[in-house]
Design goal:
The protein has 115 residues and is mainly β. The chain is built from 1 helix and 5 strands, in the order βββαββ. Helix content is 9%, strand content 54%. A 5-stranded mixed β-barrel has the order 1-2-3-5-4. The longest helix is centred in the middle third of the chain and has 10 residues. The two termini are 18 Å apart. 16% of the residues are buried.
Amino acid sequence: MEFTITGTIKKILEVEKGTSKATGKEWQKQLFVVSNNEGYENREQSFCFEVFGEDKVSKLTQYNKEGDNVTVHFNISTNEWNGKYFTSLGAWKVMKAEQGETPVNTDDAGESLPF
């Protein structure tokens, strides 16, 4: 199931890197926070998304910065580990927001950069 949300990038966190114990391959991911005013009584809501893989991490910071208005396409997944459950919002496409969705910085208007 696919979900989308439109809001402002509030924070882009540092890249996390590691090595898979199962395969020995290196991996990287990056978290970023998007906020909007669509919560109860139009209060700000924040969502922490992750992009996984060197290509997606590179494109996130290459085409987006804090303060940008974006539409994020994402999936929700939950994993169990030692009886605890962890839910993640995995972004698979981040695009500049359309004019009618949220205010867009005029310097970036119309620029769509999917990944």
